[in-house]
Amino acid sequence: MNPMTIFLFVLSWYFIGQGCRPPVISVDEVAALYSNTQVIGDIVYKSTRSRNLKLDAYVPVRRLGEPPWIEYSAELKPTLLFFHGGGWTSGNKISRSLFLMPYIQQGFAIVTADYRYLEEASLPEIIEDTRAALHWIYSNQEKYRFDTSRILVSGESAGGHLALMNGVLNKSGLFLQDSLKSFSLRVAGVINWFGVADLIEASSDWDAAFRSLVVGKDSTNAQELLRLCSPVTYIDSSTVPVLTIHGNEDKAADYGQALLLHRLLDQNKVKNKLWTIQGKKHGNFDPLEMSLAVEQIWKFIETESVFKPSHH
Known about the structure:
The protein is of the alpha/beta class. Helices cover 35% and strands 21% of the residues. It has one domain: 3-Layer(aba) Sandwich (Rossmann fold), CATH 3.40.50.1820. Strands 1, 2, 3, 4, 5, 6, 7, 8 and 9 form a nine-stranded mixed beta sheet that branches.
């Protein structure tokens, strides 16, 4: 026996002699994230006139301790595509990284992507950016072991709107650059954190400067642009399941948007759930409310059969 084995043997007999069980060493789940996840940062997924757009991938791995250092999962992984908020004018992929941690603990692969702002692109072009990020997942499914039959798309605030757009455009070639129009970019479901769904309705609360920023200088086409960029425009009976998490006192993205969205989903017999956080505004949820909301995500995935059996 080596000295450590002898020490542990003696220690265990000591506790037995004292009528006690040996101490249980538990795994710290936060500490464990390093052991089974690799973050691959700033991958360029699209080049535009104004800048290169980048994404981060959080990929389940096994650490080897020697070259090649990591080994990607042999099993295909459920995948989350997440978009940050910021009114389509600010924010970045790293600023919402704490939204991702529960999914990492559940063994998801995750992609979170930057997109252009309204100062540099139109809203349709911003939606097109996010569609290109989804295409990147499809293009890299073998390398990183993304299961494209189990993609959730999510985001908060403006990112919730962009997630909804990717969810409702499953069968459409809209908002795809020409080189991608032949691809079918399906997702399995949407987790919408207080995003707007009907921009025509939402725009009634916008000030003139922000409305002008969204619709552009040519206001004659404003209504058509807002309709084109509204998730509610595309909802039908084939729409994927949608879970919305929204505070009922939200003024930045009015709670009425959530009610309107889920009423329309019900009318089209789409699997959906609205989880209302009472007395809360735009994302000011406390630790218990966040914990309950995340619990609703896992329940929604399971009870609504969001993920069909994966292909391998």
